[in-house]
Amino acid sequence: MFGFLKEKLKLAVEKVTKRVEQATNKEEPIEEQKKEKKKNIIVEKKVDIKEEKEEKKGFFAKLKDKFIQKEEIVEEKEKKPAFETSEEELQEFEEAFKEESLAQKKEEKEEIIPVVTETEQGETIFELKEKPGFFSALKDTILKTALSEEKFEEIFWELEMILLENNVAVEVIELIKENLKKELVEKKILRGQINEIIMKTLQKSVKQTFDVPVINFIAKVNEKKPYVVVFVGINGSGKTTTIAKMAQKLKDNKLSCVIATGDTFRAAAIQQLDEHANKLQVKLIKHDYGADPAAVGFDAIKYAQAHNIDCVLIDTAGRLHSNVNLMDEMKKIIRVTKPDLKLFIGEAITGNDCVDQARKFNEAIGIDGIILAKADVDEKGGAALSVSYVTKRPILYLGTGQSYSDLQEFDKEKIMAQIGL
Question: Distance between CA 249 and CA 240 in Å, rounded?
Answer without folding.
Answer: 15
